[in-house]
């Protein structure tokens, strides 16, 4: 046992270990108990034990193993105490020892990896509403506290707590099995998982509300989840596509914010501040998509679009014709008016603002995206490029009124102000 550390040092260590180890810990316990709610409670009990014992005894050499050992002992005690778990007790072995010693290296076995994958699919199960899937995923797989999730999404802490409790109850009531979906339903279920991870990332990349334009911590959490999933499902093309998309978009985070926290448009960003390591990682993940050889899905196509931006040293070097072609391929897969709007931007850059404006006006005429602030923002940009400044300012003002993000509103109002 190492020398006893100060209480604050130990608490910081416990928090760091928990953030890293809690997904594996909860996954292993859920595999044992077949109930994610009970698994989280047992994991939390182990966390409390660490907070009580480590300040006095010191941090153990293998803190993850220590947490797993304590949690599994308590799981066995719970099974033995409760007659409802008699059948499970029989299944996992009636002769379980009173004292369980867990080797952390042994814990990192294929079984834990399988349990991790099961936990991913359960936390992101489509029986839950999107906001519940996000909260439960960040709690069980991201290691975030309820307070951290609430701060990240600018939601009251009791609201997040209720979402998590109701999500676990909904999973129990629906008798959702703790298992990886069968091949027949795996594609649809994987789509739900990827959606949750990308929702988390997008809230960090372009916050929908509040005073901050970006929230990098959420992007980091989403990237960590995406990388874990890629390790668990190495043959799934769209998993690597999502990771590539997030890596490439995250590479721009520092350049998206000015010295005073103001929002900076893509065309105005200092590309020297784009992160070359994340770009390399994104391109490598995109290369993995090519190696798998499957038809590119929506995330892989969006990643290819992001790669076009990442590989352009200046805005003028951007291959807008390739981006427009990629959007042509993406549109029928995504079936999304937002994708059509983005396609209009790309076509407007490749073929001229008049062509892009016609596409945007078709979206307006169809009555799509009436409350989406980027629709008037894009229309204003195209009008401005056509020299129709007065009309452009009206559109920027409309866009500013529709956004809930203070930094984005300030940028749009600045564009609405006569030069």
UniProtKB/TrEMBL annotation:
<dbReference type="InterPro" id="IPR013325">
    <property type="entry name" value="RNA_pol_sigma_r2"/>
</dbReference>
<dbReference type="Pfam" id="PF08281">
    <property type="entry name" value="Sigma70_r4_2"/>
</dbReference>
<comment type="similarity">
    <text>Belongs to the sigma-70 factor family. ECF subfamily.</text>
</comment>
<keyword id="KW-0805">Transcription regulation</keyword>
<dbReference type="InterPro" id="IPR036388">
    <property type="entry name" value="WH-like_DNA-bd_sf"/>
</dbReference>
<dbReference type="InterPro" id="IPR013249">
    <property type="entry name" value="RNA_pol_sigma70_r4_t2"/>
</dbReference>
<dbReference type="InterPro" id="IPR000838">
    <property type="entry name" value="RNA_pol_sigma70_ECF_CS"/>
</dbReference>
<feature type="domain" description="RNA polymerase sigma-70 region 2">
    <location>
        <begin position="23"/>
        <end position="84"/>
    </location>
</feature>
<feature type="domain" description="RNA polymerase sigma factor 70 region 4 type 2">
    <location>
        <begin position="122"/>
        <end position="171"/>
    </location>
</feature>
<dbReference type="InterPro" id="IPR013324">
    <property type="entry name" value="RNA_pol_sigma_r3/r4-like"/>
</dbReference>
<dbReference type="GO" id="GO:0006950">
    <property type="term" value="P:response to stress"/>
</dbReference>
<dbReference type="GO" id="GO:0003677">
    <property type="term" value="F:DNA binding"/>
</dbReference>
<protein>
    <recommendedName>
        <fullName>RNA polymerase sigma factor</fullName>
    </recommendedName>
</protein>
<dbReference type="GO" id="GO:0016987">
    <property type="term" value="F:sigma factor activity"/>
</dbReference>
<dbReference type="Pfam" id="PF04542">
    <property type="entry name" value="Sigma70_r2"/>
</dbReference>
<keyword id="KW-0238">DNA-binding</keyword>
<dbReference type="InterPro" id="IPR046531">
    <property type="entry name" value="DUF6596"/>
</dbReference>
<keyword id="KW-0804">Transcription</keyword>
<dbReference type="InterPro" id="IPR007627">
    <property type="entry name" value="RNA_pol_sigma70_r2"/>
</dbReference>
<dbReference type="GO" id="GO:0006352">
    <property type="term" value="P:DNA-templated transcription initiation"/>
</dbReference>
<keyword id="KW-0731">Sigma factor</keyword>
<feature type="domain" description="DUF6596">
    <location>
        <begin position="189"/>
        <end position="288"/>
    </location>
</feature>
<dbReference type="InterPro" id="IPR014284">
    <property type="entry name" value="RNA_pol_sigma-70_dom"/>
</dbReference>
<dbReference type="Pfam" id="PF20239">
    <property type="entry name" value="DUF6596"/>
</dbReference>
């Amino acid at each position: 046992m190492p020398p006893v550390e100060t209480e604050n040092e130990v608490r910081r260590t416990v928090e760091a270990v928990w953030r890293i180890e809690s997904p594996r810990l909860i996954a292993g316990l859920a595999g044992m108990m077949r109930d994610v709610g009970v698994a989280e409670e047992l994991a939390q009990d182990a966390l409390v034990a660490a907070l009580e014992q480590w300040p006095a005894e010191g941090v153990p050499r293998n803190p993850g193993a220590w947490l797993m050992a304590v949690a599994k002992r308590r799981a066995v005690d719970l099974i033995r105490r409760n007659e409802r778990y008699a059948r499970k007790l029989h299944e996992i072995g009636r002769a379980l020892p009173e004292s369980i010693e867990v080797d952390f290296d042994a814990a990192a076995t294929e079984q834990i990896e399988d349990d991790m994958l099961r936990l991913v699919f359960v936390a992101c199960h489509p029986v839950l509403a999107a906001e519940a899937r996000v909260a439960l995923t960040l709690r069980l797989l991201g290691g975030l506290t309820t307070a951290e999730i609430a701060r990240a999404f600018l939601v009251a802490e009791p609201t997040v707590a209720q979402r998590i409790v109701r999500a676990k109850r909904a999973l129990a009531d629906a008798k959702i099995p703790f298992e990886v979906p069968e091949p027949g339903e795996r594609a649809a279920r994987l789509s739900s998982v990827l959606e949750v991870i990308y929702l988390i990332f997008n809230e960090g990349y372009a916050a929908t509300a509040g005073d901050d334009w970006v929230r990098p911590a959420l992007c980091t959490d989403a990237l960590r989840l995406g990388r874990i999933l890629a390790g668990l499902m190495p043959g799934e093309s769209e998993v690597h596509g999502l990771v590539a998309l997030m890596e490439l978009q995250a590479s721009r985070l520092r350049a998206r914010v000015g010295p005073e926290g103001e929002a900076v448009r893509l065309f105005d960003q200092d590309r020297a501040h784009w992160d070359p390591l994340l770009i390399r990682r994104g391109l490598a993940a995109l290369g993995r998509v090519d190696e798998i050889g499957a038809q590119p899905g929506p995330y892989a196509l969006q990643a290819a679009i992001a790669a076009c931006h990442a590989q352009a040293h200046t805005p003028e070097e951007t291959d807008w014709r390739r981006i427009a072609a990629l959007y042509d391929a993406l549109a029928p897969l995504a079936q999304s008016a937002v994708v059509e709007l983005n396609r209009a931007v790309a076509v407007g850059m490749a073929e001229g603002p008049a062509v892009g404006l016609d596409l945007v006006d078709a979206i307006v005429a169809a009555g799509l995206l009436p409350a989406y602030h980027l629709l008037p923002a894009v229309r204003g940009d195209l009008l401005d490029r056509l020299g129709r400044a007065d009309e452009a300012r009206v559109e920027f003002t409309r866009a500013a009124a529709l956004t809930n993000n203070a930094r984005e509103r300030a940028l749009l109002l600045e564009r609405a102000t006569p030069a």
